Amino acid sequence: MKVIDILNNTDKPVFSFELIPPLKGGDINKIYEAIEPLIALAPPFINITFHRDEVVYREYPDGTIKKVTITKRPGSVALAAAIMRRYNVDMVPHIVCGGATRHKIENELIDLNFLDIENVMALRGDPIPGERFFSPEDGGHRYSCELVEQITRMNHGQYLDDTLTDTVPTNFCIGVAGYPEKHYEAPNQACDIENLKKKVDAGANYIVTQMFFDNAKFFQFVDKCRAQGINVPIIPGLKPISTLKHLEMLPRTFSIDIPHELVKEIRSCKNTKEINQIGIEWCVAQSKELIAHGVPAVHYYTMGKSENIQEIVKQVF
User: Fold this and answer.
1) Distances (CA, A) of 237 to 131, 138, 312
2) How far apart are CA 21 and CA 302, in angstroms?
3) Mean per-residue pLDDT for 261-268?
4) Cα-Cα-Cα-Cα dihedral of 300, 302, 303, 304, to 10°?
5) pLDDT at 159
6) DSSP tag of 170
7) Fewest CB atoms less than 10 Å from the CB: which of 14, 29, 141, 290?
8) pLDDT value at 54 more than 80
9) Cβ distance 165 to 111 under 8 Å?
């Protein structure tokens, strides 16, 4: 089922979570073991991230150093199909601009369509390690709104090769990202929301936000979106803090703020177990307040850790 249909037809809020594929050479059974407790709590859909190729430099025994292209976490499409078949749950694979031409993206979408996967998350993606700013591939998309436009055209049977005849339309529901604290490259939030409006106008069906720890920022973001004519569902994205390192890593990586009250609580903890519990309690309180304000769903970023998400979902849903 399409995510937009799930959101429109449910009489109560639902939850979803984001799954990261295993490192190359990893065991798919460990993914199953990690997600089965969450699957048992009946999420109607699950996101799965996509990881572009990276370039690294390796020194060989003869002393030469060569540039090598590697893929650390392959298998997103196959894993999405395997989980969908195994657990009868709808999957939302990420499609990213980074590292892909429009033709490569078209072929990925054809694969997903043949696998009966109806939902995609359209993202620009991050710069590759070592690059400060995002650079598109030759023949690729610079902005995610362009990716949304391509998917929308395919939904109307319009492929890149305009000599094709009798083309079959795809049937994708399109999710996009929103940023309650603005995207780090945007000069201000007003410009960022204008960019989000372009994605919705291009055909996006719903929005999932970047993680945040202050609900007031989410509510303000939603109000500003509505004022700009963005009327699709907006799903808040949450991530429970579970280690002391998160206080530095999360703001640095995702350009977000962590409320001072939460920082003080985390720093007063004696061990990681206490930190994990504080993170759960904060996320539960966030979730309950968001639901009380009428959000259609709450999306949880697991970042490879599912035990705390299980506890949160049990307390909230």
Assistant:
1) 26, 32, 13
2) 12
3) 98
4) -160
5) 98
6) -
7) 29
8) no
9) no
Long-range contacts from 302-308, C-beta under 8 angstroms, 24+ separation: 302/17, 302/18, 302/19, 302/20, 303/20, 303/239, 304/20, 304/34, 305/242, 306/17, 306/34, 306/35, 306/37, 306/38, 307/37, 308/240, 308/242, 308/276, 308/279, 308/280, 308/283
Ranges of each domain in the chain: 3-316
pLDDT tens for residues 216-246?
999 999 999 999 999 999 999 999 999 999 9
DSSP 72: S
- For the stretch 9-44, pLDDT in tens is 999 999 999 999 999 999 999 999 999 999 999 999
Q: Which residues pair with residue 211 across a beta bridge? A: 237
CATH of 3-316, one of 3.40.30.10, 3.20.20.220, 3.40.190.120, 3.30.70.20: 3.20.20.220
Q: Taking the mean position of all CA atoms in its chain, how far away is CA 69?
A: 24
Q: Could you give the percent of the chain with pLDDT greater than 90?
A: 88
Res. 117: pLDDT tops 80: yes
Q: Which residue has the tokens 């390192």?
A: 245
